[in-house]
Amino acid sequence: MTTGFIIAATGTDIGKTVFSAALAAALDADYWKPVQAGTAVETDSETVARLAGRAPGRIHPERYRLTTPCSPHRAAGIDGIAIDVSRLDPLPATAHPLIVELAGGLMVPLTQDMLQIDILGRWGLPIILCAATALGTINHSLLSCEALARRGLPLHGIVFCGEANDETEAIICHLGKARRLGRMPTLTTLDEAHLAGAFARNFKLEDFKA
Fold this sequence. Notes:
Layout: E1 4-9, H1 16-27, E2 30-32, E3 35-37, H2 44-52, E4 59-60, E5 64-66, H3 72-78, E6 98-101, H4 120-123, E7 127-132, H5 137-150, E8 155-161, H6 166-175, E9 180-184, H7 192-202
């Protein structure tokens, strides 16, 4: 049985790829990005390989690698294909924990008829929600918590990304009935060593163990 976490977010550019890399390194986990939308610079798999020090075999290939950085259903259309959600099963086989990073927020469409959140129950992994600490995050975070709860999907906890905002973080976890796992600060130097140090200072490894 595969163990690990699904890493979701309240939106795009929150910091979930950086956190995914930190958690993959801390747990000695494999990494998988099922759908990559946007390949012009560095893909999320390449970023995690660099920041987490993962060997090529520990980064599982995307089922879809789409050119344009936009909603997966639109990016697929631009590339002249349609996403077949049956190709997103099963999870990659591994003897290690697995970090699964989603494409953007929970409610982005993969096809004209299916949202990303609709496939999470198939994988049977607990979900970590990455939330910004900037203005607007209360609404986005609570909507994401509610969407998961309505579908009976297991929210392991919330990771905040950005500058400290204690009151906002507290009210989100209180109203969202979610555990606060910690906060990943903005790092002026982003490399493997600095990221590992930031994780060690701001998170408790036992919070991510079964």
